């Protein structure tokens, strides 16, 4: 399938994208950018950047998780993970601990401020009226999530 594709959010005239209109990488990137636009319009005042809530959420559910393990499961490079951790630490939402039994690892936990932040914004991320609903029906959303999980290698 090639031909004309109009991106609704652009308001531009239709142009021929050719095979790009069926490129999974291209379409995922456009979807990601659209998701970021929705994120900032809904949550820009929270001081949070896209991706940081995922980091905080996983720490919330897994207090004491190793920084390296968290970076690996979220596919965040070590240098960038360190920056994210420092930023959340500077915001007073996260604390790092180096365990005596393994001085090479860093364990992450949320501060009280971080836990309260996650609890206060949970509905914004996961609720029925969350920022990442782009007009898909419930069935379309479920199918899309199922396919993304499969593509991403998630099981069950």
Automatic annotation (TrEMBL):
<keyword id="KW-0614">Plasmid</keyword>
<dbReference type="InterPro" id="IPR036390">
    <property type="entry name" value="WH_DNA-bd_sf"/>
</dbReference>
<feature type="domain" description="HTH marR-type">
    <location>
        <begin position="21"/>
        <end position="153"/>
    </location>
</feature>
<protein>
    <submittedName>
        <fullName>MarR family transcriptional regulator</fullName>
    </submittedName>
</protein>
<dbReference type="InterPro" id="IPR000835">
    <property type="entry name" value="HTH_MarR-typ"/>
</dbReference>
<dbReference type="Pfam" id="PF01047">
    <property type="entry name" value="MarR"/>
</dbReference>
<dbReference type="InterPro" id="IPR039422">
    <property type="entry name" value="MarR/SlyA-like"/>
</dbReference>
<dbReference type="InterPro" id="IPR036388">
    <property type="entry name" value="WH-like_DNA-bd_sf"/>
</dbReference>
């Amino acid at each position: 399938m090639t031909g004309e594709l109009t991106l609704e959010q652009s308001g531009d005239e239709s142009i021929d994208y050719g095979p790009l209109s069926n490129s999974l990488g291209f379409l995922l990137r456009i979807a990601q950018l659209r998701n970021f636009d929705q994120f900032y319009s809904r949550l820009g005042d929270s001081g949070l950047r896209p991706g940081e809530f995922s980091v905080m959420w996983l720490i919330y559910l897994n207090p004491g998780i190793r920084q390296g393990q968290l970076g690996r499961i979220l596919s965040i490079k070590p240098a960038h993970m360190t920056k994210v951790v420092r930023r959340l630490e500077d915001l007073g939402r996260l604390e790092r601990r180096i365990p005596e039994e393994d001085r090479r690892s860093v364990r992450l936990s949320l501060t009280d401020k971080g836990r309260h932040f996650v609890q206060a914004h949970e509905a914004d991320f996961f609720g029925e009226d969350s920022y990442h609903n782009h007009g898909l029906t419930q069935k379309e959303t479920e199918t899309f999530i199922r396919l993304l999980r499969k593509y991403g290698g998630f099981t069950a």
